[in-house]
Amino acid sequence: MEVGVRVESENLLTGKVRHTVSAYMTFVALDEQGRPTAIPPLILETPEEERRNREAQARREARLREKTKEKACQLSAENCD
Predict the structure, then answer these.
(1) Which of 20, 25, 27, 76 could form a disulfide with 9 if both were Cys (CB 3.0 to 4.6 A apart)?
(2) Comparing C-alpha atoms, which of 39, 10, 18, 44 is closest to residue 27?
């Protein structure tokens, strides 16, 4: 599961609030043995939920591609670009 996080900071003297940082955090469901396990799929009800799910899938695919490239590079310098 991917969760978007937005952090804001507030100047206590002026009360001004500003965006500080945004990030996506990935969580994995674990079974009783502490191993990753499948969970029921999301029920996407709105176009915004569908869009956000597509974007999350694209980020996941990019992370997996990068992980594969890093592993190949560790095995052989010829695989590094």
Answers:
(1) 20
(2) 39
- Give me the amino acid identity at 15: G
Model confidence, pTM: 0.68
* 25-81 confidence digits (pLDDT tens): 999 999 999 999 999 999 999 999 999 999 999 999 999 999 999 988 888 878 787
Nearest CA to 41 out of 1, 14, 8 is that of 1
Could you tell me if 21 and 8 are in contact, meaning their C-beta atoms sit under 8 angstroms apart? Answer: no
| Residue 35 contacts residue 46 (beta carbons within 8 Å) | no
